[in-house]
Design a protein that fits this description.
Layout lengths: L1 H26 L1 H28 L1 H4 L3 H27 L5 H8 L2 H9 L9 H30 L11
Length: about 160
């Protein structure tokens, strides 16, 4: 009897920890995506400023046409690369945004974003939705992992009522 009580408490505690971990991880998806988009938005803004400077700045106007053309091509390439890693994620809807980041995100930019990540409370509807999904996934993961362990530890389910007959 005492062993069953102990296993019940351990089961509830591990379940609560797993669900809470899912909630915490889910709640940080929206801030991570927002910080990634801010970082890539800065990259796009710098590239746009460079393109504009090459087109209109006197400093670039005095350069030879070949050098200015190469610089303009490099700036345009940087701008298109920045848009390629920013726009698909920014245009994705609520449920596809994490998958879009996973598929279209630049690995080095994601790494830099994670390295300088600042956790945030889930205050937006998007972040709250990810938190609820994280709770559900945490509960599902715990139940999937719990099921075989409980069968091994407690044995097959026992009948509560004796057989008639």
């Amino acid at each position: 009897m005492a062993v069953e009580w102990l296993w019940s408490r351990i089961d509830r505690g591990l379940g609560a920890v797993t669900v809470a971990a899912g909630a915490v991880l889910g709640s940080q998806i929206a801030p991570l995506i927002a910080q990634y988009l801010a970082r890539t938005g800065d990259r796009i803004a710098k590239a746009q400023a460079q393109v504009l400077a090459i087109q209109s700045s006197l400093k670039f106007q005095v350069m030879s046409e070949t050098v200015r053309g190469e610089l303009a091509n490099d700036a345009a390439r940087e701008l298109s690369a920045g848009r390629a890693i920013h726009d698909p994620i920014a245009a994705a809807n609520l449920f596809t945004k994490p998958f879009s980041l996973w598929r279209n995100g630049d690995v080095s930019t994601v790494d830099l974003t994670v390295a300088s990540f600042v956790p945030a409370l889930p205050t937006t509807p998007e972040a709250i939705t990810y938190t609820v999904v994280g709770v559900a996934l945490g509960f599902l993961a715990y139940e999937i992992l719990r099921w075989p362990v409980m069968i091994v530890l407690t044995g097959p389910p026992k009948r509560r009522f004796p057989r008639k007959g």
